[in-house]
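Review session, final week

We close the course with one last complete record, chosen because it touches almost every idea we covered. It is 6,7-dimethyl-8-ribityllumazine synthase, a protein from Flagellimonas yonaguniensis with 160 residues. Go through it on your own first, then we will talk.
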Amino acid sequence: MATENKNLSVYDKNKIPNAKDLRFGIVVSEWNDEITEALYQGAEEALLDCGALPENLIRWNVPGSFELTFGCKKMIQTEKVDAIVAIGSVIRGETSHFDFVCSATAQGIKDLNVAYDVPVIFCVLTDDTIDQSRARSGGKHGNKGTEAGIVAIQMAVLGK
């Protein structure tokens, strides 16, 4: 397991560029909102901690992870942002729906990164259980949202 011995929330602020002059979009899936709200909190706190201004954080909600691609695309087209964090949570169920949603969401976000000059950060948990999701959204493995916020800063600066 990639996160077994890693806390996703640990970063060295001295190695992260200051985000004060950057604008960030955060598109959040409403499905599994216990998890996505915790991921959002982690991303928002990391961005603010690294100098982003509250007025430069734009949040949009979409119904589920599958809809993240469209939400991010519309944000790229209508808002002037330097990077977007796409936040979602897909938890395996009893059918193959999990596989289709995870694959389509990952491919869609990849396609946005190829098609546009605005980096879209993949912050979608694809876990087998709710306990695994909780461990990665503020639990024993830290918060993947925090990691995504830091990656958004790094990629926004790279894109300048």
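Two points worth writing down before the exam:
The radius of gyration is 15 Å.
The mean pLDDT is 93.
Good luck, everyone.
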